[in-house]
Structures
1.
Amino acid sequence: MTTIGIMGGGQLGRMLALAGYPLGLHFRFIDPVAGEAPVDALGERVRGDYTDPAALEQFAAGADVVTYEFENVPVAAAQQLAARLPVYPPPAALEASQDRLREKSFFREQGIPTPPFLAVNTREELDAAIKEIGLPAVLKTRRMGYDGKGQALLRAQEDIAPAWEALQGNDLILEGFVAFDREVSILAARSTTGEIAYYPLVQNKHRDGILRRSIAPAPDTAPELQALAQSYAARVVEALNYVGLLAIELFQVGETLIANEMAPRVHNSGHWTIEGAETSQFENHLRAILGLPLGSTAPRGHIAMLNIIGTLPETPAVLAIPNAHLHLYDKAPRPARKLGHVTLRCDDAETFEERLAALKPLVPRD
Ligand SMILES: Nc1ncnc2c1ncn2[C@@H]1O[C@H](COP(=O)(O)OP(=O)(O)O)[C@@H](O)[C@H]1O
Ligand SMILES: [Mg+2]
C-alpha cells in the first residue's frame, strides 16, 4: 500500500486524491482549518499547523511520499519532512515561488522574459520605481498573494497614494503592466526519472484577479509558441530538479511570451484535463512523484473550463447539457470563493461553440 501525504486540504488536494484512488493509492492530509475541508471525505486529515512539529510528525507517520497542494506551505516544514521521506516538488521550488521578487529574478536568470520589476519597501522606493518603470504598473505584495489579493493596479498618479496606503507594511514589488493580447499557461509534469510531459497551452481569462475561464487547447496557437512555452518550462524544471506538476502563467504579446508567475503544484488552469486530456494533471502529478511512466497529455477535442465562484449553479441545468461535467468542492458559498468548476468537452468545434453558449448563462457571474 502506498500512501501519499498532502499538505493542504483544499480542492486541489481533493482532486489529487480522486485521481489517485483508481491507482490504488491512499491519502492523508494536513491542514489547520477548523470546520470542514474539501479533502475530508477522502482521507484522514491532521488538523494541525504546518509549523507544529508534533502535527507534522503525526501527518508524516504512515506517508510514503509527501506533496503539497498550495505553495504557501512553510519551507521549513517541507524541509523538516524532506529529512526523513521524499518530498516533491523539492522544497527549493516552494522557495522560488513563494516570493514574487525571487520568482521573477529566477525567471530572469533562466533567460525567461518577465515584466520589468523592482523591489519596493518604502514610499521613496515606490516613487523611484514608478519613475523607472512608468505607469501603468502593478504594485503587489511579494508573499501570500492569490486570486488577485494583495495587489493594486496603478493607472495614473492619483492611484499611487491609496495603493501605498492599502499595501504598505508588506515587502512589495512593482511590476510594469503588460498590455497582453491574452493570458496563457503551460503545464508540465516531470517525473523522478527525469521524464517530462507538456500539456497544450491553455488560454485563461481572469476578472478581478481570479481565473474565470480556460479554453484548451488555446485557440490559434502556432507550434512555435507551444515550443517556446515548453522551452521555458523545461528550463524551470531542469534548474530546480523539479518533480511533479508545474504551471507557469504567461502573458502573450504578439508571438512572444512574458512570464507572470509559476505554481509548484497542480493548477486551476489544468482542471480541464480531468475529462479533456488523455491523462489529467492530477494523475500525472501522482505518477511523477511516484516515478511511474507519465501518461499522454493529448487533448480530447475542444475543451472549456468555467470556474464556479461565489454562487452555486443549478446542478440539473448544468447536467442537462450534454458533454458538461460538474465538479463541486464541498465548500460553503461565499463571495469570490472558488466552489467548483464545469468542464465542457466536445469533439467538434461547432457543437462546442453551441453548448458553451448554452452553458455560460448557467454559471452565475460573481
Ligand atoms: N504585470 C501585469 N500586467 C498585466 N496584468 C497583470 C500583471 N500582473 C497581474 N496581472 C493580472 O492580474 C492577475 C493576477 O495576478 P497574479 O500575479 O497572477 O497574482 P495571483 O497570485 O493573485 O494569481 C493576472 O492573471 C493578470 O490578469
Ligand atoms: Mg496568477
2.
Amino acid sequence: MRDQAEILRDMVKKVKPFEFQVISVTSGKGGVGKTSFTVNLAYHLQKLGKTVLILDADLALANVDIILGERPKYNLLHLLSGEKNINEIICESKYGIKFIPASSGFEELANLPKEKQVQIFNSLQEIYYRFDIMLIDTSAGISENVINFCLASDRTIVITTSDPTALADSYAISRILLNYKPENMEIGLVVNMVEDEQEAEKIHRGMNNILKEFTGKTIKYYGCVKKDKKLSESVKDRYVLSAVHPKSSYSQDVESIARYIIEGKRPERKETFWNRFVKNLKNLRIE
Ligand SMILES: Nc1ncnc2c1ncn2[C@@H]1O[C@H](COP(=O)(O)OP(=O)(O)OP(=O)(O)O)[C@@H](O)[C@H]1O
Ligand SMILES: [Mg+2]
C-alpha cells in the first residue's frame, strides 16, 4: 500500500511534467561499461536526492538486473503480452533503485515493431511523474531503436573507452545524433577505463575537432571514469560498487558526473520526451 505522503508527492509531480528528465546512455560499441555506469549513476543520483527509474532498453540482452543482483519475476515481455501492467513489472532493488527489466534471449524484443514500442511508452507515461529522472540503458550498436531513445531524451551520455574501435563507434553515433539536429538535446561524453583525466580530456578534444569539421557542432565533456578492478569484481559478485565501496575510485568518478548532471543547467527542450519519441518513430530513417 502506498502511503498518503507518496500519493501526495505523485499529485504534486503530476502537475509539473517538465521537471522530469530522461537521460540515455549509449556507446556504439558493446562492452565499454554502459550498464555498470548507468546503475552506479542511478545510485549516486538517488543519494543526491533524486528519484530515479532505470529502463533496461537492451531489450533482448538485458543486464541491468544482473548488475543490480536481482532476478525479476516479470519483465517487458509480460507487459507486451498483456499479462502484467507497468506497476507489476517495476522492480525495486535492494539499493532502493527502481528499474523496468527487459528479458534475455527473446529475439522478438530485439526488433520491436513500432506499435509495440508505443505500447511500452504509453505504459511509461502512466508512471513517469513519480520520478525525477529516467535513465535508459541502451543496447550496443546503431539501430533505429537506439537513435530514437537518444533523440527523444533530454541528454544522451555517450560512453567510450580509449580503444580505437570504441572511439570510432562513439564518434559515429555522436555524428548521427548531431546530424538530426535535435533542438537543445545535450550530448555528454564519458570516457571510461582511462588511467587519468588528461587522457580523457584529450580524447574529448580530438573527437570534438572532427565533429566540428563534419557537423559544425560539438559535444560536452561530462567526465571520466578511471579503470578500477573493484568494478569487475562487483560485476562478478553481483553488487553495486558505489553502494558497497563508496570510496572506490570508480564510485567517486561516477559521483562527480552525477553532481555535474544535477548541478548543471537542465537542457530546455520544448516538447516532452513522449511527444518526441512518438514523432521520431514515424519519421526516423538512419542513413
Ligand atoms: N571503469 C572500469 N574499470 C574496470 N573495468 C570496467 C570499468 N567499466 C567497465 N568495466 C568492465 O567492463 C565490463 C563490461 O561492462 P558493462 O556490462 O557495463 O558494459 P556494457 O557497455 O553495458 O556492455 P554491453 O554493450 O554488452 O551491454 C564490466 O563487467 C567490467 O568488467
Ligand atoms: Mg550493457
